[in-house]
Design a protein that fits this description.
This protein is α/β, with parallel strands linked by helices. Helices cover about 45% and strands about 15% of the residues.
């Protein structure tokens, strides 16, 4: 049946939410993590999140919540404000599913030369990251799950298991560990802000996520507006690209989506996906994929400008927003009452419960990817060959 895999998105979304709710984290991890973070903040030290690729984006999400909470010395390895030199008052939080990511380890090693604290979050107890953390008296947080370097297993290749649905719903490589890392950090910041225990916050947050039901027809309409891929085997060259737009926390959801969308093509194909921050000029029939809960401000301005130049507009936004009004198709997410204060630059709230629409956008993006992989018949080799060589 045409687009059948997209028609399963409502059920898939619920599966993802239930899977996330089933994540179990040790209270000991939260207690020790909290103690190290609070000690660093009290001593005016820097909180330094290290990561690469989608894990670095998750580190950026943590810095957004930390900044909203009032931690002024919180940075991510992607920041230009990231410290050039660590001190004994600082702490590094290195996140890597495989524990072998070169860029993350390269950022971490100079910090180990000081007496700074260290926390490692990984799914690989036998990794270089785990060894470095334990040998330097740090806190190792092991999040059980399959990472992209898991290799061969007794039940078959990890990548093949992911693509053929044996590990549904978190099918694409690394997704399980990425979402576990994100949820651990969300539960930490949420519990600190609400006074709930991490488990209480975790359960209530996931229950709220489950209250949303996506409309699969919106996803099909969005998929149809994506530009054709370049096919080197058939010598068919597509002049068009997808440019992904988002600001604040919506911007981080859009970054996670953009990275994964670029992986979704056959080995002999290329799908052009760019960030609006670095993209070349919009051409007619390019597609702008905009993530914005409010549908106002810069995302709306950029969409309006792109539409004037003949681009297609896909919006992940709330019903009735200005962005919804000018988009060619919209994947509707819940709106919210903006709690903007004087001087508030990006509307970021310290309580993740007040950012549910952004998290719904994030999960919608994961469901979109899963459906694309199934619909286009992509396999493990296809996705692996499009991963960056520079992480």
């Amino acid at each position: 049946m045409e687009y059948q895999v997209f028609k399963e998105i409502p059920d898939l979304y619920q599966e993802v939410c239930k899977t996330i709710k089933g994540f179990k984290f040790s209270n000991k991890y939260f207690d020790e993590f909290s103690g190290k973070i609070e000690n660093t903040v009290n001593n005016q030290g820097n909180l330094l999140f290290l990561g690469s690729g989608r894990m670095e984006t998750i580190g950026e999400i943590a810095t957004l919540f930390g900044s909203a909470k009032g931690y002024h010395n919180i940075h991510c390895s992607s920041d230009t404000s990231y410290s050039r030199k660590a001190s004994s008052n600082d702490i590094a939080i290195a996140i890597s599913g495989s524990g072998e990511t070169n860029r993350t380890l390269d950022k971490l090693r100079p910090i180990l030369e000081t007496e700074a604290g260290i926390i490692g979050i990984t799914a690989n107890k036998e990794s270089t990251l785990a060894e470095l953390v334990e040998n330097n008296g740090g806190l190792l947080i092991y999040l059980d799950g399959k990472h992209k370097d898991s290799g061969n297993e007794s039940n078959g290749n990890y990548y093949n298991k992911q693509i053929n649905g044996n590990s549904r719903p978190l099918t694409l490589e690394g997704t399980e560990v990425e979402l576990k890392t994100l949820q651990f950090l969300v539960d930490y910041f949420g519990s600190k802000e609400t006074g709930k225990t991490p488990k209480q916050f975790h359960d209530s947050f996931c229950d709220e996520l489950c209250c949303y039901t996506p409309n699969y027809e919106e996803f099909i309409s969005a998929y149809r507006l994506l530009p054709e891929v370049t096919d080197f085997e058939k010598q068919i060259y597509s002049p068009n690209k997808t440019v992904v737009v988002g600001e604040g926390l919506s911007g981080k959801s859009s970054d996670l989506f953009r990275i994964r969308l670029g992986h979704c093509a056959k080995e002999y194909q290329e799908r052009r996906v760019e960030s609006y921050k670095t993209a070349n000029a919009i051409r007619p029939n390019d597609t702008l994929f905009v993530f914005s809960v409010s549908g106002e401000g810069l995302p709306y301005t950029y969409a309006e400008r792109a539409k004037e130049k003949g681009a297609n507009i896909i919006a992940m936004t709330s019903k009735g927003s200005n962005l919804d009004g000018i988009s060619d198709t919209t994947i509707q997410i819940p709106g919210r009452v903006e709690e903007k204060e004087k001087g508030d630059i990006n509307h970021m709230q310290p309580n993740p419960e007040k950012c549910l629409p952004e998290f719904i956008s994030l999960l919608n993006g994961e469901c979109f990817m899963y459906s694309m992989v199934g619909y286009e018949g992509l396999n493990d080799t296809d996705l692996k060959c499009h991963h960056s060589d520079f992480i």
